[in-house]
Structure formats: C-alpha cells, structure tokens
Write a structure and sequence with these properties.
Strand order of the largest sheet of chain A: 1-4-3-2-6-7
CATH class of the largest domain in chain A: Alpha Beta
Distance between the termini of chain A: 32 Å
Largest sheet of chain A: 6 strands, parallel
Helix content of chain A: 25-40%
Number of helices of chain A: 10
Radius of gyration of chain A: 19 Å
Shape of chain A: globular
Oligomer: homodimer
Largest interface: A-B, 31 and 31 residues
CATH superfamily of the largest domain in chain A: HUPs
CATH topology of the largest domain in chain A: Rossmann fold
Chain lengths: 289, 289
C-alpha cells in the first residue's frame, strides 16, 4: 500500500497507469467504515490497480462548524485500508487541492439543486463542491471506474451528471448501502450519536421499509407513501425529520406515482448528526435496500 | 486524415491512444487560416498523434447574431487540413456536445472575468463558455499537449486557469500570432472586413508597435503608453476602439508599470468585426510579436 500526498506524484503515477491495466477508484472523506471497505474490495477485485482517496472537501460544507467537526482519524483509516489489498491511498493536502488563486468551479445548474431540501445538503453550494472535487480527483487519478455507495443518492446524481456533461471517460459502479443489524446505514457521522440517539436512528430505515411495504401492497400514490413514512418517523422524538422524498432514482426529481426506478429517500437530523438513507424499487419484488 | 463526428467514437479512439504515443490537440472553431495551420503542423511535428477539432461553441457567444454570422466553411477547412499531416479531425455535433439535459458548466469566478472590457468578450459568459468547452474537449480527446495561438490572450488565460484549477493533465503550447504583411493578426472574422475596413485594421498592430517603441525607449508608465496607443488608433475613423490594456501576460491583470512579462492588448470593432491582438515584452529586446 503506497501513500501519495503530493499532487504531482499522483498525476505522474496516474499517467504511468494509462498504458497499464484498469484503474478502480474509491473517493472518500475518510473516517472509513465497512461501507468504504466494501467499495475498496470491489475496486481491488474488478480492476488491476485500486486507489482510494481521503480528502475532507471543505467547499462542499455550507457551515464551517460542520466542516470543523467532521470526524477525522487518519491512522485508523490507514489501519483499515492496510487490511485490504488497496494499491494506492491518495491523501492530498487541502492547500494543494485549493491552492492560492484557485477560482474555477464545476457548477451543476439543474433546477433540482436550487431547492434546498435540508439544511446543509442538496443545495447549490453542496452540488458545486461535490462536482468540483470529483472532477479534480478524476483528473488526478484518471480511473476507468469510480466506486460509490448507494447511500449518498444526491452525490451519485451529481457525479453522474458531471461525468455525462463534461464527457469524463469513467464508468460509475454503485454498490448497495452497508447497514448495521438494525438497518441503520453506516456513515462516518454516526460516530457522534449518543446511545439513545443511536437507538432512535433505526426509525429511518424502518420508515423506508414501511414505504416498501405499501409499494409491495400495490400502493402507487407517492403522497400516501410519504405520509406513512412521516407518521412513523415522528414517533421518535429524538429524530428531526428533514424530508421524505419519492423520486426518480437517477434525476432525483419528485414523482407523484411510484414506478420501477423510483427511489424512497429520507433525511433527518439526530442531535448534531445529519443522516440520509434511501431504497430503490426496480419493479415486481426487486428492491435495492 | 480520419474524420470523427461521433462522440463515443472519439472517446473510444482517445482511450486507445492512452497506451500509445503522445497526442497533440488543436481546438478550433473552424474557418481555418494559416494561424491554425501553424498549430496543426506543430502538433504533427512534436507529437506522435495529431488531432484538430472544429466546433463553433454556441455557449461562448453572448449575442445570438454573433453566433449566427460566425463564418463557417467545412469543406474549405477539410481542404486546408488535408494539406497537413493531421491524423484526426474531430467535428462533433452541437446537439451531442450539449445534449438534452446538459446543465453542468465550468465556471471561472476570478474577479477579472466580472469586468466586461468589450461587448461580447471577456465577460463571465464568455469565460464560462470557453472553460466548459475546453474541459469537455480535453476529456474527449485526452491529449498530452494542447496548442493555442497567442492572439487570443483571454482564451489562453481561461484555459490555463481551468487546467490548473481542475488538475487536467495536459501541457499547453502557445505559438506566436500569425500576421498579414501589414501586421494584422489572422482571424476567421477578418473575412467580413470591407476593403477600406481591411486597410484601416492595420492600425491595431501599428498601435501595439507604438507601445513597443515607448517600452524600448525605457518608458515604463502604463498610462503614458496606453495614451500613445489610443491616440494612434483614433486617427482611423473606421476603427471603434474597445480597449487598450497593459497587463500581466498570464493573469491579464492590469499593471501600472511595465515589467518583463507585461502584455500590451488591444481590441476594437471595425464594422461588424471584432478584432483583438497583443504583444508581450519579455525584458531587454525580447518581444513576442
């Protein structure tokens, strides 16, 4: 496992790979968990060269407190990665990624990013931050395939649109969300949940499953499904629901009627922790949970 | 000389080149002249594979009339290119480059683009248009070196900033402006000058040379040099001066005092034709004319 901090070294290394085998890339913000590890293992199995990056991207945070308290533990991350067969870990410095004079952003302008579904997420600033950093990382690492977890549906939608609109020659592999035994989606910020909050947090996945039960029972009306999900979440007073959204799984545009390809999304704040989750219905009994 | 219209074919072809030799790329808007030909010949001589693109980029035009009347003559362009040893000509369709749902722009936000030094140029819209199309073309063609002519200093400054800020692994080769015998910089739009306008147009280069004479005579005060240049241009009533600017040749930021690396820029409208030109002083008797 080789660690690269220097941007020029990463560029040179990636250039060398172009003549070699396929490169699989897992971009992360660190504080790694089993979900990240699953992505890294898939990249290693499916590609000849596997790379992960660790970079807490400041420009995708709307509030500086959220950036400041984002969990970081590099030695723990490197420990976890050393148990995988990852080839390279790229850990650029913030002052190199956004060096003096940096002034060019990648800007998603679709109207879906104009609406701010929850404080700190889904806004234009978040979309611009994600779009800019993924473009930069894809230029630095030049992978054939980038690996992302299904949990962060907004991030996936942004990356998919950027790759398509800027003609970046990279495939996207989206792997299912990894969950705790009670269904809570793994997430770096879960670390900050108190024990009562942690217990309450499982209501988010239970709400998604309540929505699923209705769809499985042939309910197709989004408003009815959303209401059932909301009614379940409000039984947990520690959970501050940000939104429930029933939408197209690629575009994230809200739909009135559930159809194959529809996603049920949920977002909430529990204490200081922002949690998101989603499941996708692919028709009949096919769900991505 | 292979002609590629299809975007996927370009992507596949470029991917194939990655394991091969160096790729030199000349992006153009067509209506080619000797300046373009010089770039193509350099790409052919210096790289193993040479590619030119022809694409009139609609999103960099602020006024639709200017886009509509931009000169086009594809058969003449292909005729000219066939006299070179170019390997591939990439001619994408507008509806493929900006397909339905396109919504991601590359946005230079430096304050220098907020000021609109002349109608139709230098604005944020122009900067965004150039930044977006060059990013897309560099992803599609994946060259090692991109070739640009010195004449369009704003374009060069934008491309340099984009490549730096987005970490695109491409070198830039800037070749000197190619001029008519009276000094007028070659340009696709020159085609639209009437005979009297064409004769008057040479005043722009003469104004640059008047500025040069002052620098060579040890004048360093930008205001004094600008005044001398303006005084010369106003002797030609057919020429509507947009601006004279004395600035840093990389950042295009105005400077009060001339020093090595300073650029003298000029822009004017003559009839319906917008003309730009520049020269750079590198110290002592070294000029890029």
């Amino acid at each position: 496992m080789r660690i690269i901090h220097n941007m020029d070294e990463m560029t040179e290394t990636a250039r060398g790979w172009l003549a070699g085998g396929t490169v699989g890339f897992v971009p992360t913000m660190g504080f790694l968990h089993q979900g990240h590890k699953t992505l890294v293992q898939a990249a290693h199995q499916e590609c000849e060269i596997s790379v992960a990056s660790i970079f807490v991207n400041p420009i995708q945070f709307e509030e500086s407190e959220d950036l400041i308290r984002y969990p970081r533990d590099l030695s723990r991350d490197l420990q976890l990665l050393s148990t995988t067969s990852i080839d390279v870990v790229f850990i650029p410095r913030t002052e190199d990624i956004y060096s003096a004079g940096f002034s060019t952003y990648v800007m998603p302008t679709s109207s879906q990013w104009a609406v701010q579904p929850a404080k700190g997420t889904g806004s234009r600033i978040y979309a611009r931050g994600v779009a800019t950093i993924i473009t930069k990382l894809l230029q630095l690492v030049r992978p054939d395939i980038a690996y992302l977890g299904q949990k962060n549906a907004q991030q996936i939608a942004i990356v998919r649109q950027v790759v398509r609109d800027l003609n970046i020659d990279v495939g996207l592999r989206i792997l299912p969300t990894v969950r705790e035994s009670d269904g809570l989606a793994l997430g770096s910020r879960n670390h900050f949940l108190t024990q009562p909050e942690r217990r309450a947090a499982s209501v988010l996945y239970r709400a998604l499953l309540a929505g699923k039960a209705l769809v499985d029972g042939n309910v197709r009306n989004s408003a009815e499904i959303e209401k059932a999900m909301i009614d379940l979440v409000v039984t947990e007073p520690l959970v501050n629901l940000d939104y429930v959204k029933i939408c197209h799984s690629d575009t994230l545009r809200a739909v009135d009627t559930v159809m194959p390809g529809t996603m049920l999304m949920i977002a909430a704040h529990i204490g200081i922790v922002h949690i998101i989750d989603n499941i996708i219905w692919h028709g009949d009994t096919n769900w991505l949970l």
